[in-house]
Write a structure and sequence with these properties.
Length: 258
Amino acid sequence: MDLTSVIGFAFVVSVLVLGILTAVGWNVGDAAVFYDLPSVFITIGGSLSAVVFACGKDQLKSVFKAFKYAFKSRNTSYVQLIKDFQKYAEVARREGVLALDNLTSEMKDPFLTRAIQLAVDGVDPNVIEQLLTLEVDNISDRHDDAVTVLKKVASYGPSYGMIGTLIGLVIMLKNLSDPTMIGPSMAVAIITTFYGAVLAYAVATPLAEKLEYKNKEEMLEKQLIIRGIISIQSGDNPRMVVQKLKLFLPPKLREVVK
């Protein structure tokens, strides 16, 4: 579990709840004024319906996986990955590239396993790079689909909040002669905007940015694997393999590898 995602989301919910309770003098009963079923239908229902209308089936499927991906912790260490490639390079130099096939059973990353198997099969380094890069691009595209859907939710939320506001104002103006209708109409007018802002800036936008960050992490990991296996297949010695891979890391992590 990714603690930053869990803690961050918990803080978002806590701040909103505490803000509402503080505003109503810690009277839980009065906090019920922030719940309005018509506003939920207009803002949440309208936004999600528009997203379904705007996106394809595969994009929508990717969002459900994205929620799990956003809260799942990645255990990969770039430093450890480079150290592993140093070991692979030493084995390849000492026993030959074919000996790497014996190490695939201990690898948990399917992408790394495929990369090693391509090298064991004697595939040309340029072909290895093309195949693995194509796979990485496809992975990134699937992640982008989820981010695109979430950004659409963030875009539609405030828009449907504004639509709800207009609906509430129309109802209020139509019933100015009936004082009992002014309050409920104003509630729809204001709370829909509130719901739209919460949907966009407390849920959809942070989640989309989290996915972009995790995608960046995963792409760096994949690039390290690609460059490492190409370097080994090209016959580089272990020291050179490490030197090439260290270039992908910030200076502080390069010292850790050293």
